[in-house]
Design goal:
Number of domains: 1
Largest sheet: 3 strands, mixed
Structural class: mainly alpha
Number of strands: 5
Distance between the termini: 42 Å
Strand order of the largest sheet: 1-3-2
Shape: globular
Radius of gyration: 17 Å
Length: 213
């Protein structure tokens, strides 16, 4: 019986994964932004250990040169197996690319070359520098304080919540039962990230000083 996993049959599984993801609006928006920043990460199936995916950022980041490499998004090799789930692989790719995009948006803010619209949205939806507060943790704490506190070391951390929000929104995915968030958290964060990506993409296309791979 042939495998139902196109990644298992593919001679170029990364390209196949990108093709599968390309039908989702989340992937399209992420790639539009990362391409505008000349910061599309390398993608491979070499994630360490039991990790389903991981993103390793470039050597230089906030405060460094704008000319830094784009980083690497690695997925588990299990996704290429006979029983691998291609939809879960797409969601994991979206998760890791959100980390890449999130880092780039923070870099844009640091560079100080953003529109008032993007700067204002970033302040409201990500980090308010004047108050020193992060929006996602505040939202999670309001929706379910015990869940937020219990998962603060990873799932409800500042960096992970937006990535889970985007990843879990792709292809009608369901959150992992072991990390199931408050009902409205992931959809809200996914919507907010799409708004930020749209504004950040407009800024990146207007700004001639793009980053380089």
């Amino acid at each position: 019986m042939p495998s139902k996993n196109p990644l298992y049959e593919s001679r170029q599984p990364v390209n196949t994964l990108r093709q599968l993801a390309s039908d989702t609006p989340e992937y399209q928006q992420l790639m539009n932004y990362l391409m505008a920043r000349s910061a599309v990460p390398e993608v491979n199936f070499n994630a360490d250990g039991d990790n389903s995916g991981q993103f390793v950022q470039g050597e230089r980041y906030i405060g460094g040169s704008s000319k830094h490499n784009a980083g690497t998004a690695s997925l588990s090799g299990d996704y290429m197996g006979y029983k691998g789930n291609p939809n879960t692989a797409v969601r994991t790719l979206g998760h890791e690319l959100t980390h890449a995009a999130w880092n780039q948006m923070r870099q844009q803010i640091y560079e100080g070359k953003t529109s008032p619209e993007f700067a204002d949205a970033f302040s409201k939806l990500v980090y308010n520098k004047k108050k020193g507060t992060w929006a996602a943790p505040d939202l999670a704490n309001k929706l379910d304080a015990p869940w937020y506190k219990e998962n603060e070391s990873y799932r409800s951390s500042v960096q992970e919540m937006p990535a889970f929000g985007i990843g879990n929104s792709m292809l009608g995915g369901d959150p992992s039962p072991s990390w199931k968030p408050p009902t409205h958290l992931d959809p809200t964060l996914a919507t907010e990230q799409m708004i930020l990506l749209d504004l950040a993409t407009r800024d990146a296309k207007r700004n001639p000083n793009k980053t380089t791979r």
